[in-house]
Each structure stands twice: as C-alpha cells, then as structure tokens.
Specification:
Strand order of the largest sheet: 7-6-5-4-3-2-1-8
Shape: globular
CATH superfamily: Alanine racemase
Largest sheet: 8 strands, parallel
Helix content: 40-55%
Structural class: alpha/beta
Order of helices and strands: HEHEHEHEHEHEHEHEH
Number of domains: 1
CATH topology: TIM Barrel
Radius of gyration: 17 Å
Oligomer: single chain
C-alpha cells in the first residue's frame, strides 16, 4: 500500500469520524484519531504522518523505537498494548502516553522511571469490562483505586479510561461495552481526587469506532482501516 492509498483511507476514516460525531451531537474535533502501527513498516508510518496523522499507537515497545526514529519528534506516541512492568523504563522513554495501565505495579514503575528523567507521563486506566481472561485490564471495581494511586504520583497524569470489548462481526454488539465505560467514567468523576479530569475515553477500533464515538469515545484506535489488513 502506497502513500496515496493511505491518504485516501485516512480521508475516508476522518469522514466517518465526522459523521459519527455529528450524529451524536458532538464536534468532530473532539475525537482524536490514534493510528495503530502494529506490524506496519516505518515507511508507511511516515506516509501516514505526511498525510496528517498526529498520534500513533503501538502495541509493542520493541517495534515503537524504529518507527519513532523514522518520524523524528513530529508525532505523539501512545502505548496501546499490554505493558509488562519490566518494560516500564523503555515505555517512559518512547511514549507520550500509556493507555494500558491496569495494575499498581506497572503504575508505580512508570512513575519511578518518569521521575528519573523528569518527565510527566499521561496514562489511561485500562478496564476489562467483558471479564474475558484473555484480555488485559483492571476489573471495573478496581478502577477508582488505580486512579487514586495515580493521582498520588507526581510524574503521572491520569486522563481517563480505555477498554477493548470482545470481537464481534456486528459493531452494534460492542455498544454496551462502550456505554459501560462512559457510565463508569461518569460515576467515578465525583469520587476522584481534585485535578483528575478523566476526560479521555479510548475505545473503538476499525470495525466499531463509529459506535464508540456515538457512546462518547474521545480517542479511537484505528489500524486496518488506514493501513490495510495485516499480513
């Protein structure tokens, strides 16, 4: 896939984002596109950047380094894959935000390494709303505890929640999980420490992002619809 096709795909995705936002009474600029670069080579990532992508999401820290070096410091990078605590130092070095914080050990390691390099790292708390054992994420009942713990960390900024619903062929089947994350966020807002905004809801991928936007997504993580199916 060349740069022209990536540009066309991006235009199509942005149009769908805009329509979904308008349908739900929102402004299109409220939704941030996170282009997922899992298995995408650095050249195609650079083409997406040239087409206007500002945020890239990577699942693996080892893949992120080469892609980030290819782009320089012109883009924002989000960690969107499961993060092991022993990779926290590398994650702090490579990423502007980690969307997949799901346990205290990872949270504390990120804060420790961010403090060492005098960096403030944005994080999201990943919540497993489906209960699937194959999916990462904190249990719904532990989200407040993790947010409170993050608020006590000087070098972390908890900005919201993230979830991955079960895979469905029909996007509408994912809607209850997106609605549940928004409802959880709204219920937590009065309980979290002062200064924690919880404005971000990262949810929705290539197959269901329009439904996610209708349910309040602020960040949608889209790979296949931009870069094509993975080989």
């Amino acid at each position: 896939m060349g740069g022209g096709e990536i540009r066309e795909n991006l235009q199509w995705v942005r149009e769908r984002i805009s329509r979904a936002a308008v349908r739900s009474g929102r402004r299109p600029e409220e939704i941030r596109l996170v282009a997922v670069t899992k298995t995408v080579d650095p050249q195609r990532v650079a083409q997406a950047a040239e087409a206007g992508v500002e945020i890239f999401g990577e699942n693996y820290v080892q893949e992120a380094r080469a892609k980030k070096e290819a782009l320089g410091r012109t883009a924002c990078w989000h960690m969107i894959g499961h993060l092991q605590s022993n990779k926290a130092r590398i994650a702090v070095d490579l990423f502007d935000a980690v969307e997949t914080v799901d346990r205290e050990k990872v949270l504390l390691e990120l804060d420790r390494h961010a403090r060492q390099v005098e960096k403030v790292l944005s994080i999201l708390i990943q919540v497993n709303l489906s209960g699937e054992p194959t999916k990462s994420g904190a249990e719904r009942g532990r989200a407040l505890e993790l947010i409170q713990r993050a608020a006590a960390c000087a070098n972390l900024r908890c900005q919201g929640l993230m979830t991955i619903p079960p895979f469905y062929d029909e996007p509408e089947k994912a809607r209850p999980f997106f609605a549940a994350l928004r409802e959880l966020r709204d219920g937590l807002r009065p309980l979290v420490p002062s200064g924690v905004g919880l404005d971000a809801l990262s949810m929705g991928m290539s197959g269901d992002f329009e439904v996610a936007i209708e349910e309040g997504a602020t960040h949608v993580r889209i790979g296949t619809a931009i870069f094509g199916k993975r080989g």
